Write the structure tokens for this entry.
Amino acid sequence: MDALNEPVDAPENEPTHAEKQQLADREMENALNAAKKNTFRDEIRKQKAALEELLRQNAEAPEIERLPREEIVVDHGMKQLVEADGDARVQLTKSSILRENKIKDTQMARIKTLAWDSMEVHGAQLTAFHADTHVFNYPIQKMSGF
């Protein structure tokens, strides 16, 4: 039954076309992200294996040639470079998100002006206190000054 208590042919729990499209988009995005994540993990595994090999060689080296574990830090300069690159990417992402939010806020304000503020009488639903009855009014658009 719809809001006017008329029978509806579609099942109640069936998603709309827009919901189906959003679900398909999410699944595609998840698949792409999974592929990127797997590639990243493979690269980390390779680097981990190389580091473990270096540690093994260090452990098997003669005592005089061994390095203390603290000195096996890869590259302090590279570490700073990676951190700086990460910070730059964070700032870029933040600015991108802020820009997208401003665009969405502008669109929301335009839609509100066209669809809500332009109404003299806004659409509403009145519900009875002790009965399961609803009454709807009709939204009326403001008359423009000729």
Observations:
- The CA atoms of residues 8 and 74 lie 67 Å apart.
- The chain has two domains: 12-72, 75-140.
- The radius of gyration is 31 Å.
- The longest strand covers residues 119-121.
